[in-house]
Amino acid sequence: MADGRDGRGLGTAAFVALGLIWGSNFLYMKLAAALITPGQIVFFRVLFGFVPVLAYALARGALSRRHARHAGHFLVMSVLATSFYYYCFAAGAARLLSGVAGAVSGAIPLFAFVLALCFVPEERATPRKLLGVLLGFAGVLLMTRPAGSALAATNLVGVGYMVAGSLSIGASFVYARRFVVPLRIPAPALVTYQLGLALLTLPLFTDFDRVGRLLADPHATVGLVVGLGLLGTGVAYVLYYTIVDRLGAVAASSVTYIPPAVALAIGAVLAGEPIAGADYGATGMILAGVVLLKR
How far apart are CA 81 and CA 192, in angstroms? Predict the structure, then answer.
């Protein structure tokens, strides 16, 4: 009995930690975007995030040479759930207030559901789910409004990048459900292959010119390497699987409620961003939509 309570306690601690870590990612991207390109941000995020993930997969004995025959599926996942997804979020965070970018990211489950409706025959729409989607998308649209003269020209573009990234990760869920889950490959192995292939392919599309500018700001450097890479990517995956093991997959999926609120709080309190009341209202609409969708 004590072991069960200890297990749930560890899972709950991992749940809270993961929400805080994911919510802070947008500030780290914003700091780095002032010095280097979104493509460079993604490369270093994957580079330093790969280390904890690989160590975790090795410790769990999850890797196998037999998995190599499914490399094509791993490559698709590396594009949808890592390279393109991370790039869009980095580009969006560069153009938006970090809190606003984090709030829009809360719509990921909405895009995943819409794509599942289109491509997964077993998925069914109900009036409650459709209401959730409409409410959440209304929140996203509210985020695209001009937010002051300095942001009027970039809000729509920034939210567009966030939507593209959300669509990409949503598509990865659908792809994984149809083609990867049936393979019954351990999740830590899948993430290791996904990040590893991204790490191999990203240099082909990344311009590393003037990347040394990152060293001019120690806060941005530590934020990118430790906050976004080691913690926000590598440790975050380990925490996620800890939640799945201790609390179950449903509880793990609900951790997406936390990052938008955390990102808004960090942006307003720590970064001093001028987040408007409408942004809080839009975030509430997105989260309410997700709640209706997942009930």
Answer: 12
